[in-house]
Amino acid sequence: MNLSISSFSMKQYQNISITLIIAAILVGVLSFVMPKNNEKYLGDRFWAKKTFAPSDYDIVLMGDSRVYRGLSPNVMEVELPGKKVFNVGFSNGGLNPTMFKMAENKLAKNRNPKVIVLGVSPNCITSYTQQNEQYLQEKNRPREDVFERLYLNGILYRFSSTTPEAIKEKLRKEPTTSFYLNEYHLNGYVESEKFPVDTMEAIPSYVDDFTNFKVEERYVNSLMEQVKEWSSREIIVVGFRPPVSQPMHELEDTLGLYNEAELAARFQTSGGHWINFDHARYKTYDGSHLNKESAVKLSRDLAKEIGLLIKGKK
Amino acid sequence: MLFNSLIFVAFALVYFLVSKLIGNRLKGRLFWLTAMSFFFYGWWDWRFLFLIVFSGLIDFSAAIGMRRWEKHGKFFLISSMIANIGSLSIFKYSGFIAHNLDLLFGLSGQFSLSNHIPEFFLVTPVGISFYTFQSLSYTIDVYKRRLEPTKNILHFFAFLSMFPQLVAGPIVRAKIMLPQLLKVTPVSKEGMWIGFRFIVKGYFKKMVIADNLAPIVVAAFSQPEINQSSLYWWGIIIAFAFQIYCDFAGYSDIARGLAKWMGYEFPDNFNHPYISTSLREFWTRWHISLSTWFRDYVYIPLGGNHGSKFRQHLNLWITMVVSGLWHGAQWTYVTWGALHAFFMSFERVTNWPDYLKKNKILRIISCLLVMVQVLVAWVFFRSESISQAWQIVKTMFAFTGPPQLGWGLSGTIFISIMLLNEALAASGIKEKISWNKPIWAWSEMIFYAVIITVIIYFRGNGSEFIYFQF
To answer: Is the pTM of this model over 0.90?
Structure first.
C-alpha cells in the first residue's frame, strides 16, 4: 500500500482504518503511562463478581466490611486443602434473611460438608444495616452495567479514564505521605492498608451509629433461627466477633449494647459453633478494620478452627 | 439505550452488519430499521412502545384519511393534533398542570389533583417531545398539501422511529426523510469518512466536554447556600452553557454520522451558536431543527411578521414561551423562553446589533452582549427553582465576592478548548483550510486519532444526554 503524500487521495485509502490504527497505537502506548482508576474498574468488577458468584463453594464467609477486609479465602484455602472458600461480606451487610439466602446460594449444591461463617459485628444486628443497601444496589443494577462490570472492566481498567488533575498529580512525583490501599481479590477479599495508621479514626462515626442504632433482640432472634435451620440441615455454622481495637470493643459493648457472652451462648445452643479470638493479637488501621498482615493471621486462625470442625475434632 | 454505552456499540454493529446482508431490498431495509428502532426505544421501557405505536398509527391513518375524504381533512388533522398533544399533555404536563391548579385553588389532601394522577402518567417517556413533533409535522404537511401521505406503514414507522434521532433529535421533517427512505443510496468511502468524523466529534463533545463539565455544574447548583462570588457564578454558567451545547450538539453529531453511514442525510442542528452577534442569529444556529419547527408550525401560523408591530411581538412571545414549555413542565423553562422573547423583542425595537456591525471589535462586543443575554437565560433553564435562579442572577450582577471561577483545572482546560473552537469558527480559519490537500488529509486522520485517544482517556462519568428528558 503506497501511503506517500503525493499519491494520497481521500477515496483511495481507508481513512477510517488508518485513523483507527493510529488511535490504537496511541491508546496502547499511553496505557502504560496513564494513571489507573483502581476503585472504578476493579472495585466495580469486584462487587459484581461477589454479587453474581456461582453456587460453587464449600465455605462461605458473610458479614460486613470487617469480614471482607479481614478474611482472605486464598489464605484459608491453603490451610484447608481441597476446599473452595468465598467471601460474601458487603459494606454495612446486615445479618438478615436476604443476606442469609444470598450466602447460602453460593454453597456448592452437591458437595459436603458445607460451611457458613458469620462475622457477627454489632453493626450487623442493628436496624441500620437491615436495608442491605449495597447488596441490593449491586443486585438490581441494569443488566448491561453488570455485564460490563463482570466481563469488560478488567480490560477497561487498562484504559482508565482520567483527569488533568490526576495527570498533574502523577507528574509531580512527590513522595507519598499517605495512602489507602484497597486491593480487590476476585474471591471477595479486599486487602487493606492505610498510612498513617490512626486506630481512633473510625470511633466518631461508630459513636454516631450506636447512638441511633443499638443491637436489637429481634435481629438476634432472626439470626439464631437461621443458625438453627442451617444446623438442622447439617450445614456447619461458625460465628465469631471480628477483631477490633480495644476502644472500639468497649464502645460496641457499652453504647451498642453488644453482649458477646450471651450471643455466643445462644449461638451454640442454636447448633452453631462460636469461636473466640483474642483481639489483642490483631492490628487494625482505623480501629475497625484489620490491616493485611492481621487479616492473613485471622484467616489462618479461622481456617484452623474450621479444619478441626470439619474433621469432627471439635 | 445510550449512544455512549457499550451496549449501543454492539447494537450498532448488529444493525450495520445485517443491513449489509439485506443490501438493496427496500422492504427488508425498512423492516429492519423499524424493528431495530423499536428495540432501541424499548430498551428503556418496553411500555413506552405502545405510546409511539399508538400516536404513529393515528397519524398514519389520519394522513390517509385526509386524502381519501378531503372534505373532512380538518377533522383528521384535529384528531391527530388531539392524539399527539393529548398524549404529550398527559405524560409530560399532567403533574405540572395539576400542581398549579392545586396552588391556584388551594387544593390539598384528598382534594389535591396532584394526588389523583395515576403513577404511570408521571413517568415521561424518553424523547416524547421529539417524536410527537416529528409526527405532528407529518400530518400538518399532508393537510397543507406540502406532502403526499405514505400508504406503506413500514415506511411511516421507519421515519417516525428512526433510532439515530428518535429520542433527542434532530427533528427531521417528513418531507425530508420520507423520500430518502424510499431510495437506496450507496454510501461512498467519502461519506463513510464524513460520518466517522461526525461520530468522533459527537462523542468528544458529549463524553469529554459535557461529561467533564457536568460535575462542576451539578455541584454548584446543588449547594444549599448560594455561593456569594459573582465571578464564580459567571464561571459556572459558562460551564453550563458549554455543557448543554456539547451534550446536545454531540448527540446531533452522532445522529448525523450514523445517518450518513445508513445512507441518509440529516440537517445541521447546531452551527456555533455562541458566536452569534444577535439573538435572532443565535436562534438560527441553536437547535436549528426545533427553532425552524416552531417558526413553521407556530410562529408563521400565528401570523409571523405580518400584522401590527404589537401582533408581531405577541407572536414572538407566544412562540418562545411555548418553546420554553416544550423543554419541560416547570416555570423555570417558561421563564427561560420568556426571557429570550424579551431580549428578542428588545432587539427588534432597538435594532442594536445593526449598530455594532461596523468593524471587528464592535462585532466582538456584539457577540459578548448576546452571550451575556444567553447566559442569563441559561441560569433559569438550569436552576431548580425560580427563586434559586433569581438569587444567582442577582449574585452575578452584584460583582462582589472572591475572584474564583470554580472550574478547577479540568473545567479550565475543557472550556478553553471550546472557546478556541468557537474562536476558530468565528475567524473563518476552518473554512479557509483546503482539507483535500494530501498534507491536510493526513493531518486530519492524525487529528481524529488523537481525538479518539482523548475520548478514551478523558471520558467523563457517563450520563444520560440532557435533552432525553425533553
So the answer is: no
A10 to A112, A136, B71, B434: CA distances (angstroms): 68, 53, 55, 13
CA atoms within 13 Å, Cβ hemisphere of B281: 18
Residue A1 has pLDDT above 50, yes or no: no
- Whether B228 and B157 map to the same domain: the answer is no
Report the range of poorest mean pLDDT among A7-16, A21-30, A272-281.
A7-16
B409 closest CB neighbour out of A6, A30, A165: A165
Q: Which of B155, B287, B327, B340 is catalytic?
A: B327
Phi, psi torsion values for B175, nearest 5 degrees: -70, -20
Instruction: Pick the closest to residue B240 from B219, B214, B222, B276 (CA basis).
Output: B214
Specify if B1 maps to a domain: no
The answer to whether residues B258 and B232 belong to one domain is: yes
Count Cβ–Cβ pairs < 8 Å, chain A vs chain B: 82
CATH code assigned to A36-310: 3.40.50.1110
The A-side interface with B (CB below 8 A) comprises 5-6, 8-11, 14-16, 18-20, 22-23, 26-27, 30, 34, 144, 147-148, 152, 159-165, 168
Looking at the structure, tell me whether residues B428 and B297 fall in a common domain: yes
B434 contact A CB<8A? no
B327 as an active site residue: the answer is yes
Q: Is residue B179 domain-shared with residue B294, that is, in the same domain?
A: no
Cα separation, B470 vs B468, in Å, equals 5
CB atoms within 10 A of CB B334: 21
B460 reaches A (C-beta below 8 A): yes
Q: Which domain holds residue B350?
A: 190-458
CA A134 to chain centre: 11
Give the closest-approach CA distance of B187 to chain A in angstroms. 12
Give me the amino acid identity at A277. Answer: F
B383/B244 same-domain check: yes
Q: Quote the cell numbers at residue A120.
A: 457477627
Across residues B333-361, what is the average pLDDT?
A: 91
Cα distances from A223 to residues A90, A119, A126, A231, B176, in angstroms, run: 17, 12, 12, 12, 67
Same domain for B256 and B354, yes or no, is yes
What percent of chain A shows pLDDT beyond 70?
94
The CA distance from A269 to A280, in Å, is 27
Domain count, chain B: 2
